Amino acid sequence: VFAPFSSIRFGTSDELVMDHLQKKPEAILYALDVIAQDNALLCEKLITEAGCDGVYYCVQGGEKDRFTPEEYRLLITPSDLKVLEHANRFSDTNVLHCCGWAGIPNHLQIWQDYPAKAINWACFVEDMDLQKGKAFFGGKCVLGGFDNRAGSLINNGTKEEIQAFARELVKQNAQPGIMIGADCTLPATIDPARIQWVVDAVSNA
Fold first, then answer.
1. H-type helices in the chain, by residue range?
2. Banded model confidence at residue 180, pLDDT cuts 50, 70, 90
3. Is the pTM higher than 0.90?
């Protein structure tokens, strides 16, 4: 489930939303609140009716060249939290995904206190590995370790290379509260066998 700031940009354009935030911020803030109500209800129904254990909640827009941390917390955080806090009323296993889709480092501190059971971020974009991230996010469960971008190991490596990397991730992060996964969504075209290679390596590590 995407945060409202992503939803409004997907439905219009990034340029339009950023322009209106400068010229008519009150209109965008109102729209974000309305969208938050819809996205919150979606989370509720996914958990209570669709049978999901929780949601993978994607927050975006924290790139260092977009907002200052103070601007983000003022303009975007209220709608982020409206959805996440509602999801938490129906499940205590929700994952917060701090998206690095643009390949630009984020102000990760803007999401540091968001209430989620597990945290996922772009380890390679943010230059923050799982151990550093676990400390940064206050010891919460963390998820990641594999770069998902085009040209990365998971997309182009051999079985031997991928499994060796997965085993090394387990070796380096052998403690409770760390899950091996991708830094973001994998390409829809990826061969599922590549994912299975990781599962097998982690299971036997």
1. 4-11, 14-23, 25-48, 69-75, 77-88, 123-126, 130-136, 153-156, 159-172, 192-203
2. very high
3. yes
